[in-house]
Structures are given as structure tokens and as C-alpha cells.
Amino acid sequence: MTTFASDTDTLTRDALTVLQPGFTGTAAPDWLLRRLGEGLASVGLFGRNISSPDQLAALTAQLRAERDDVLVAIDEEGGDVTRLEVRTGSSFPGNHALGAVDDVELTREVAAELGRRLAACGVNFNWAPSADVNSNPDNPVIGVRSFGADPALVARHTAAYVTGLQSAGVAACTKHFPGHGDTNVDSHHAMPRIDAEPAVLGERELAPFRAAIAAGTRAVMSAHILVPALDPDRPATLSGKVLTELLRGDLGYDGLIVTDGMEMQAISATYGIERGSVLAVAAGADAICVGGGLADDETVRRLRDALVAAVRAGELPEERLADAAERVRRLAAWTASASGGPAATGAGEPGADGEVGLRAARRALRVTSTESFTPLTTAPYVAALTPVANIAVGDETPWGVAAELTTLLPATEAGTFGGPDAGGAVLAAAGERRVVAVVRDEHRHRWMADALDTLLEARPDTVVVEMGVPQAAPRGALHIATYGAARVCGRAAAEVIAGV
Question: Has 176 been annotated as catalytic?
């Protein structure tokens, strides 16, 4: 069992217990191991911490050698947001593709396989699924991370995902409460606001969270959004009305409440991370997520000291901090009891149903073609019309169809384009080759729609692959909506293009 440093008092241990920090590098730094000995109970992993499944398994073993019940958390949604496969693209198509198929058993199977791979690497807490209803098609941060725009569909797939993930012994963290779908602002950059009435919120935003709670989700992540109908003064993460009265009281939720990243601008630029963390715990949050951007010992020290000082100053009840810490320990105990033991295959390697993600991606495709279209037999030119990636997704994970088409049609060439002259630039680069234009959320980017206009006027035989939320009308000799940009989505689209 873990032995805590003898000079760490209970209040300081509790303050450390509620933190979920990150770090840099692929091995745990000395400061992190020391903090685990002092009471830190959780560690958050990101793409920067992972180079291979075996390395990840060694890292989590290093953490558990210091504290055997440590919660090892990760942001592994599958699809756009992947950490296990950050450099190759995900083996799972993501929520929007699963929603497009609308087979809850398939969603459960996908989540179970993803959970099995996480557990095999020693990860026991996943900041997923996204239960946001993507009711605003202009949403810049949710999009294909959502199962869809219909609350009932999102609710049933959220429940299936929770069930599948937790069947592998990995705690699900349903997010972003009370719902981030009806926003046109990314909370990484500023404070979003949802002006819906309570009745709308109840029927739309809250439906998936009710389903997740009924399915037994072990954690819920709060959103840094202002919802005046619920609390006109404070964002959800800092609101007792949202976290304690609504989530705990009205919805009857008794699991762990964790914040979204406190270094996001919606909190850090308005309240600051120290003050924000104190207010979050006072409001009902049990764990403070920090480390996506701030990932050092100084951040941990600052937040620990802020919580301790707030208790001593009477701003944060000591009982509330102790309750939060106990909920963290309770979740750690569940993950220990739910662990299925060593996996039969190598760490993070596909299991018996390792192809479930590709099967799901194939089923999600919506294909619209003209009568004259025939599959390509010669190598095309793939033009990726690329928007700026949001922070949750990042720009280090490859996307598109070029790599997958190259395996089917060797000598395929590719380029990345953007801006008002993108269409002409593609035509110049492609020459006589057949053009495959790959877009994401054409409806949100005027320059992208203009580029397609230019391409299709000059080259009506252009193939269009929409890898975002398909809102614009299908066009081109062949139009493929993939409902996601994961590697398996690109593979499924490439198979159609090449007639495989």
C-alpha cells in the first residue's frame, strides 16, 4: 500500500488529493513522484506523454510504484481527440460517426474496446464521453465530438458509451456539464454563454447527463460556460447552483465531479486558476483538472496552497474539501476493484475485436455520387482544405484521406491549402491529376465553400470528402460524408474512392 510522507498533514493531503495535474515528458518527473507520496491522487496524461503503448504501460507502472491506487486520467475520446494515437490518428471514428450509425450496441462495443486498450496500458480514468448535444452547427469546439443534434440520440449513445468503457474497468467522465453544444465560443479562449430557457435546457442539454447517471457514470466533468437560466453570475464550474443544487440535488448524482482544464481562458483570464480552483471546490467540484497547458510542480504548489489558505481563512469549509478528497479516493477504490487484471494482448494493442472501429467508420459513411462516377484506378491529387484546429483537437494528429489512399493507389500526391486563393492553388498543384478535395465543416468556412466552387467549376469530376459535421449540400462527382476525421474514417472513405 501507499505510504504517505509523515510530515504531510491531513489538510495538505486533501488539497493535493483533489488536484489532477499534468507533466511533460514520457517518464514521471521526480517532483510528481514526490507529490504522490505527499497525497496527490491523480495524474492527467496528454499526447506529449505518450510515444507507444509499451512506454505508456511503463509510465503508469512507474506511477503505481509510488502510489498503488493512483488515478491515471486521459482525454481519449476516439475520433478527433486522441492521445493514445496522437501521431497516427485514431482507430475509432469518434462520437459523430457512431451517432450517424445509431446502433447503441456498436457504440458500446467501440467504447469497450477503447477501454480495454486503455486498461492494458494502466489508464483507469477517461475524460470521455462528450455528452454535448451539438444543437448549434457553428459550434467551434464540439462538432464531431458530439453524437449529434438530437437529445434522445445523444442520450442513448452516451449511456452505451459509459457502459462499454466501464465494462473494461475504466471510469467514464461524462462531459461537459450542463452541456457545451449550443455555444459559438470555445471556452479554451473565452467564456461561452447559453441563453436557453430552463425548459429547453432540461429537455435538450440535460437529457444525456440523466442517461449517463442512470448508466452509472463514475465521473462528470463541468463546463466553463455561463448559463444565466441556471446561474446568472458564475460559470457552471464555479456555480453551487449548477454543481450542487442541479447535478447533485435535482439529478441525484453521487459520483465524482471534475472540472474542465482550469488553465482554459474562460477561467484563468477571468478568475485566475487559484481563485477559480477554490470557488470550484466550494461550489461542489471534487477534482481540479489542470495540466493541459500548465504542467509543473509550481502549479501544483500554487493550487495546493490556495486551497489550504482558503480553508484556514474560512472561505472554503474544511468539510467540503475533505468530502471532495474522499470522493476521489472512492473512485480510485472502484477502479482497483473493477480492474480485469492483465490484458491477454500487448499493452494497448487491438483485442479480439480490434477492427470494431473500422467497421463503425465504414457503416457511418454517407455516399452521394453521380451516375458517371467510377472508382479511381490512377493516383489522384488530394487537396486538404484545412481550417485552424481547436485546442482540444490540436494540430499534431494527422487527418484526411491522403495516407490511406496512397496505400490503395500508390503515387497519390497531396497538399494542404487554406485562405481565399485555395481553389486556384489546388488546380495549379493538381495539374492533370484527378482532384480529391477533403474538407471539414464546409458550412462554417466561407473560404472553403468558395474553394470548392472554384474547383467544381473547373473540374466537375472532383471527389469531395467532408470529414466534419455535414451541413452543406453534397456536391461533386462523388461526395462522401465521414462524420469524423479519424484515421479509420479516412480509410473507409479511401476504400470507396478506390472501389475496394
Answer: no
